[in-house]
Amino acid sequence: MTGKRSEWFDWVKALGIAAAIAIIIRVFLFSPVIVDGPSMLPTLHDGDYLIVNKISYTIGDPERFDVVVFHATETRNYIKRVIGLPGEHVEYKDEKLYVNGKTVNEPFIQDRVNQLNDNQTYTFDFSLEDLPGGYQKIPEGYVLVLGDNRNNSTDSRRLGLISIDRIVGEAQFKIWPPSRIGTVN
What we know:
It is a single-pass type II membrane protein. Keywords: Hydrolase, Membrane, Protease, Transmembrane, Transmembrane helix. It comes from Pontibacillus yanchengensis. It is found in: Cell membrane; Membrane. It is a single chain. Helix content is 22%, strand content 30%. By secondary structure, the chain is α+β, with helices and mostly antiparallel strands. It has a single domain (32-183), classed as Umud Fragment, subunit A, CATH 2.10.109.10. The strands form two sheets. Strands 1, 2, 3, 4, 9, 10, 11 and 12 form an eight-stranded antiparallel sheet that branches. A hairpin with a 5-residue loop joins strand 3 and strand 4. The longest helix has 28 residues, at 2-29. The N and C termini lie far apart (57 Å).
């Protein structure tokens, strides 16, 4: 009887340790997220399952073009791309991104921009001053984010700048559906 009790205890202990490790990984390191909506097309599709790296910004800062998950409201997270960083001035004019007056290419939307007719616009012109807050430069501790699907995205143009403290982490891997498995570019 002692052998069975010891074996049973070993199984309970192993399952408890495994559960504790899973909880630590989920809470502090990585988290699954499901894309909800078309705002990040063509990069991410509605229903894509992602793994978000929660420690990216604990040990570093967001970089331009990182795809991040952030708390948009108390109950809702959004997925967007970092476009502007602290200390920068951002402007969009004639389908071109300008950071501190210099053109910055956005390869992740270039195919869509190239397919536009003469009277179509993918990203409407705006400058940092036009956004909520009316800043001339992005303050420390904030980033400007946009969805890749610029005509169908609630992002910094409407929400204002996003506090880095509200960022959950960086979306790094697509894990579902199988045809889309890979890194998030």
